[in-house]
Amino acid sequence: MDPRQEYIQNMTRRHFFGQTSLGLGTAALASLLPDPKPAAANVTTSQTGGRPDVPHFPPRAKRAIYLFMAGAPCQMDLFDYKPLMEKMFDKDLPESVRMGQRLTTMTSGQKRFPIAPSKFKFKQYGQSGAWISELLPYHAKMVDDICIIKTLHTEAINHDPAITYICTGHQLPGRPSLGAWLSYGLGSMNHNLPTFVVMTAKWSGRKQAQALYNRLWGSGFLPSKHAGVALRSQGDPVLFLSNPPGVDRTIRRRMLDTLARINERTFAEFANPETRSRIAQYEMAFRMQASVPELTDISGESKSTLEMYGPDVYKPGTFAASCLLARRMIERDVRFVQIFHRGWDQHGNVAGDLPKQCKDVDQPCWALIQDLKQRGLLDDTLVIWGGEFGRTIYCQGKLTRNNYGRDHHPRCFTIWMAGGGIKPGIVYGETDDFSYNIVENPVHIHDQNATILHCLGIDHRRLSVKFQGLDIRLTGVEDHGPVYDILA
Asked: At 331, which CATH number?
């Protein structure tokens, strides 16, 4: 059933007239809405929940993993090789390149914008000849498995609005996250685990990292059941997963049955759909008491698999351990897994902090792709790696040959994608000699999200929800769309 029609049908007369935020206008508006579109022909899924008209076309991917490098990796130190900058060391960035760009308060007061070439060596790898930094030796081994996009861009220049923007489609809080949209549109493929799971991994670089707020994986104005469930590395994997002392599983079951009857009475009186969501979440939590401990127990993994992820895989909460858990979730048909890795905000000490960050993620990223390939899961699993914006070619703070800092840069940054629906082994887009402006094939973050939705069988223009009088969608109202050149 269409969730809008379900909401109206579940509404009792008392709740209808008592809920002033709805009023008679809602009924009038509902009468003007078009009938739900029939499910796309020849699309078969085993999903439960979700929209009846989604997927809109046969998907290439059933699941997705988003490896989010919070803080913004330095693109010109990792993927966007700019050899001509070596000759311009400590020279001022030309105004013809900067073109009066709005800067953050961290560098807007600088008297100079001296160019800081990357101190790291690059080589070409794979059939595409992709340039990869010495900091990413494992990435160098998998360039033929991934699609590197060098021309992402955004409008936000500070972390919190930028991460909120790329995760929810808007710089202001309150919108559903990408994972919540996927849960709402596609539903669940696993009865015993959440549709959307989030992990925040430990990091080794700069310790003063930006805070991450749960709105980044929240459901916004969608029902709360679509929000991401945070998996923890200490204590219970999920908060309150264990029963308190003296409460066994039988007692817990009886308590939930009684609570469900109370909630059903509340629903019968007020017909608030969130009451039903609460009942469903309690039941999911009960099932997770059995499924989550099995999920997080890696003792059954082979020695070769564990060695592939590197020594950190044995340390709960590390990026390596999180990547292995992501693969285990994908095996169990969790729809969307997002891993946040903080510490990429190198305003200073790039030479000291960036290598540590790369060591955290380089081997586990490679291992995740190889693990998925070996198990036949990469073909229908989409993997995305990237941050919220890029970093400047000019130096923030003191510049030396051996060290420098970089400020935020929204005009161009690099991500990579792999798996279901993406062409492997290609480099897409090009930036200028300063890694400052895009000269070929720009990709807005809304285009990236439209591409992700497309791989999962969703037309980004058709997945929307009416809220506060607007048809709101993840990709906004501007003219954006999938990047068809990178689709397989």
From this structure: 3.40.720
